[in-house]
Amino acid sequence: MAMTEAFRDPDRPLDDRVADLLGRLSLAEKVALLHQHQPPVPRLGVGPFRTGTEALHGLAWVGPATVFPQALGLASTWDPDLVRSVGAAVGDEVRGFHHKDPARVGLNVWAPVVNPLRDPRWGRNEEGYAEDPWLTGVMGTAYASGLRGDHPTYLRTAPTLKHFLGYNNETDRHLTSSNLPPRVLHEYELPAFRAPIEAGAAVAAMASYNLVNGRPAHLSPLINDELRRWDSGEVLVVSDAAAASNIAGDQGYHADHAAGYAAAVRAGIDSFTEDDGDSAPTVARLTEALDRGLLDESDVDRAVRRVLTTRFRLGEFDPAERNPYAAVTADVVNCAAHQELAREAAQQSIVMLKNTDGLLPLDGEGTVAVIGPLADTLHEDWYSGTLPYTVTAYGGLAARVRATFHEGVDRIALRGPDGYAWADDGAVVRADGAAPGRQAYFDLFDWGEGVVALRAVANAMHVGADDDGVLVDDRPQPGGWVVRETFRFVEHGSGQVVLHHLATGRYVAAGADGVLRASAEEVAGGTPFTVELVADGAREAAAAAAGADVAVVVVGNHPMINGRETEDRASLALPPAQEALIRAVHAANPRTVLVVTSGYPYGIGWADEHVPAVLWSAHGGQEYGNALADVLLGTADPGGRLTQTWYRDAAELPDLLDYDVIACDATYQYYRGTPLYPFGHGLSYTTFEYDDLRLSTVEVDADGTVEVSVSVTNTGGRAGEEVVQLYTRQRRSTVKQPLRRLRAYRKITLDPGERATVTFTLRAADLWFWDVTRGARVVETARHTVQIGRSSSDIALTATLSVRGEEVGPRRPLDRPLWAIDHDDYAGTVLVDGEPGRADAVGAAEQAGWIGFRRVDFGAGAAAVAARVTSRTREAAGARVTLRLDDPLSGPVAGIIVVPTANARQDWAEVRAPVTGAVGVRDLYLSFEAPGATVSCLTFSSGGMEASSD
After folding, report:
1. What is the pLDDT of residue 185?
2. Which SUPFAM superfamilies match (predicted)?
3. Which of 220, 550, 619, 838 has its CA 20 to 30 A from that of 361?
């Protein structure tokens, strides 16, 4: 096209170029650009574009590329510069693949994941960074900065934050609602997203599957009211896969898809990830929405402007020679520099949880028995790249010391009524084997919660079911969106079992042809087998350990089993067979090192009590074995620190769906128990001493700063790494405050005897909390304990800082409405979506409940109240909401609101009622009589029934 077209001129302002191209598009062309797969516009010389290249810890799903440690592992380095370098390497590999195959690999990348890791049972725990929102923001900003690049004009890639908002559970994720009270929203959930966007590192975000306070996240007003306010430019927002169809589908929030899609566009969704590469259904629904007047062309223009802005910033419409990233070729993929970076990242991510009796580092002498189901294999997770090569734990150690290997898993035979189950190389599995033998032997992998996998000894391939349910031994590993290689043994009586195939939900039965199929709907239709133990894995591993100088046992999770996308974990316990293996090996050789490789914490209480040395890392990518050997042999200090609390048992956790971390004492900030390993924990091979904690001032204004300095000395005999951590705790407050909160940290390396002074700048303004009485941040006048230590529980030194801030006074409901969502206490209630343009509301849950407001100043007295209410169930119609003073159950009644019948979700009514006894400063409670009774806000007046909520 001619260079006279303004959008082709790279010297024009970006906004002018976008406006010019937007003005040249027809309405139909613009609508087509709102799908993930954007078609070309040949008449303008505009090519195709697609959103959504997965790049969480390496380029995924497009063939071999450098695989770095999982995101949780990257954060465990506590090294944002290293994480940024990894992001840059991944961004270059995206560019390299795009250079080779632009149609297959787009430049809008869906990474990083910045959902704070509130609960370790979340199925996607390994995708996030930390349970602390500030640390999550630091790491998310670092990784996104690498992906984005540092050119002032062009983006290396366009990073997309996932998943906005309140997304930490998988099971029925599109039907569950995350309860986010205002303080949890502003203090815990939003900061992790805000940091990368405010820093200009991330330029896009993805909405999440779940609902937030009863409203689909794809329709959240927070997309425009919060997310887009953090950046002065355009922030692209994409839908998650098939999520927009849920709005009028399973969520039933709108009557039809045209209405649901229109609502999504108006809420701020710019790109629909629907129907894979087929954009026709999305275009049809949006076109219908326009025809019905549910959308205006201006709504479409607004979304397309964000889409085009991203494309311009990637350099699509500029000469290649002006864009340095356009010159990156596929030669960069898995290059030597990236391999070395992968090793460094894996090395720095390893956390030493325990080391007694000086067992580590190993001296490299003697024989090391490397044992366990994860000792000589590397697993890919759903968002992992394809491993170009693998260095396992055994491989890394065997290259440097005398090492032996034993997998430590049981070998079994399955004897059925017509013979043994057996398999040839990649053939169907039959149940008519005449005698046990190699073709009838299977290695049994216990992955916990009763889930097992079977690997045929005949060809070392896993058994799975094909599309017709036929069992075949042709799978290298369990994996795929649908994992077809997992089973449960269901007892059948008389010591026999039936195989339950988890993917199909059916039971395995032998047909008349002897072939095993997952075909029976009931357990009674399955073929019963007697499990014959051919080799006791734990016993044989123990024998191998007994003959070695040191045993290294490598256990953990399979990333595709018992916790992954669509599936949460039920437990933090190790699989029983792995637990038994650790105990057997330790009994045989007390010089045992336990290495846990997993995407989430485990409750390894027995091992912590008995095993002398324990290490943990996330799944570490292609260089994991070399990195582990570096740490075990002491050529590298274990540089990792935990970014999550390790609990002893899942019983210490609140309900997985309870997102109110403040009320339920969740995460290290509020947890009152003694963890197995605390947030921030990790040991070095040397020791450090802290002294001389100083504050530049002991009193500061709310807009002031204080320099916090501490001296750290390496008191050991070798160089080592320490992560010096700064926490604060507000001593008194009008609200419940965290017991501790990470404010800053510094990772340092010191030689033996070396002493260094570490200085932090603490801003008093960062000591804010969200004041629900005013809907704003507030820094209170209060004293704060400044804590310096090695972890959130290992505090070495403390000092006191006084902050001159504000005094939070009582609520004044005669001056402003009292919004139900802004309550201080509650029981038996649920947060729900409020009226359009208003705050969210509160309703009774499954039975009667209440909410409370502390210190409500009614002045000389309130005489009337106007309440915005609705009924969300038939039972709620005519129910009462009782206003009580001082106590939610027995306090004096100040007023009664009767909830009228509602005919639709947003059928709100204003109900007026007299108020008595509300004088002076009192605690106010709203007691809900029936499930579904819902209150949005209350407006009090001193003049009687003329009160109004407007």
Report:
1. 98
2. (Trans)glycosidases, Actin-crosslinking proteins, Beta-D-glucan exohydrolase, C-terminal domain, Galactose-binding domain-like
3. 619
How many other C-beta atoms are found inside a 10 Å radius of the C-beta of residue 204? Answer: 25
pLDDT value at position 872?
85
Active-site residue, selected from the candidate residues 240, 270, 446, 473: 240
Alpha-carbon distance of 638 to 361, in angstroms, equals 10
Cα–Cα dist 926/941, whole Å? 17
Q: Count other C-beta atoms under 10 Å from residue 468's C-beta.
A: 9
363 CB burial (10 A radius; 0-12, 13-18, 19+) = exposed
Q: Count of domains in the chain? A: 5
Q: Which residues of 68-102 are buried (b: 16+ CB within 10 A; e: fewer)?
A: bbbbbbbbbbbbbebbbbbbbbbbbbbbbbbbeee
Q: Cα 746 from chain centroid?
A: 24
pTM here is 0.97
CATH number at residue 99: 3.20.20.300
Handedness of CA 46, 52, 58, 64 (dihedral sign): negative
The gap from C-alpha 472 to its chain's centroid, in whole angstroms, comes to 34
pLDDT at 950: 42
C-alpha 94/C-alpha 561 separation (Å) is: 28
Total residues belonging to the chain: 950
Looking at residue 848, what is its pLDDT? 80
Retrieve residue 591's tokens.
Answer: 């010089």
Tell me which residue of 127, 134, 155, 138 sits closest to 58, measured CA to CA.
127
Say what the pLDDT of residue 427 is: 86
**Strand pairing class (818-819; 933-941):** antiparallel
Determine, yes or no, domain membership for 272.
yes
What residue has token string 């997770």?
381
Q: Same domain for 119 and 238?
A: yes
**On the CB side of 162, how many CA atoms lie within 13 Å of its CA?**
24
User: Between vectors from CA 258 to CA 256 and to CA 261, what angle results, nearest 5°?
Assistant: 105
Residue 949: what pLDDT?
41
Of 774, 804, 834, which closes a domain? 804
Q: What local confidence, expressed as pLDDT, does residue 539 receive?
A: 98
What parts of the chain have a pLDDT lower than 70? Answer: 1-3, 944-950
Catalytic site residue 240? yes
pLDDT at 944: 63
pLDDT by residue (tens digit) across 161-202?
Answer: 999 999 999 999 999 999 999 999 999 999 999 999 999 999
* Structure tokens that stand for 399 in this block: 């290259």
Report whether the peptide linkage leading into residue 112 is cis, meaning its omega lies within 30 degrees of zero. Answer: yes
